[in-house]
Amino acid sequence: MIAALRGVVFEKSDGKILLDVNGVIYELNVSMNTFASVKEEGLFYITEKISENEYTLYAFSDKNEKKLFDSLIKLNGVGPKAALAICSTYTPVTFMDIISNQDISALKKVPGIGPKSAKRI
C-alpha cells in the first residue's frame, strides 16, 4: 500500500498531477484545493482505489482532506468522484460544520450531489 509520495511535479492539468518520484511518474487525482496549493514539488497523502479494470491514486496535500475523502467513500452511494467533488468544494473544517448543522442545501451545491445523496451524507 502506498501511504504517501514525495516528488517533483512533472505536469498539472484537469484535476490531475503527474508526479515524478525518482524517475517513476505517477498520475494523481487531486481535489481543487490540493491542485491550487501545489507548487514545483510536494508531499501527497495517497488513497488507492483498485478495481477489476483500474488502479487509481487519489492524492491530498492535507492529511485531514485525505481523512475526509476516505470517510466519504465508505458511505453507501458516495464514490470517489463525488467525494473528490466535496473535497474540492469545501475544506474539512467547513464540511464538518455543514454536517453538524445538517445543512443539506450546502451539500447540494457540490457538483454531482443531489437531494438524495445530500440527505444520505
Walkthrough of the structure:
The chain is α+β, with helices and mostly antiparallel strands and about 120 residues long. The chain contains six helices and five strands, in the order βββαββααααα. Strands 1-2-3-5-4 form a five-stranded mixed β-barrel. Helix 2 (about 65-75) packs antiparallel against helix 3 (about 80-90).
Short structural summary:
The longest helix is centred in the middle third of the chain and has 11 residues, at 63-73. The protein has helices spanning 32-37, 63-73, 80-89, 92-100, 104-107, 115-120; strands at 4-13, 16-21, 24-30, 41-50, 55-60.
Shape: globular
Strand segment count: 5
Return the average pLDDT rounded to an integer: 91
Order of helices and strands: EEEHEEHHHHH
Total of helices: 6
Q: Return the structural class.
A: alpha+beta
> In percent, how helical is the residue content?
25-40%
Radius of gyration: 15 Å
Low-confidence blocks of residues: none
Major sheet: order of its strands?
A: 1-2-3-5-4
Quote the distance from N terminus to C terminus.
27 Å
Largest sheet: 5 strands, mixed, barrel
- Described by its quaternary structure, the protein is single chain
What portion of the residues fall into strands of 2 or more residues?
Answer: 25-35%
How is the topology of this model organized?
Blueprint: E1 4-13, E2 16-21, E3 24-30, H1 32-37, E4 41-50, E5 55-60, H2 63-73, H3 80-89, H4 92-100, H5 104-107, H6 115-120
Helix pairs in contact: 2-3
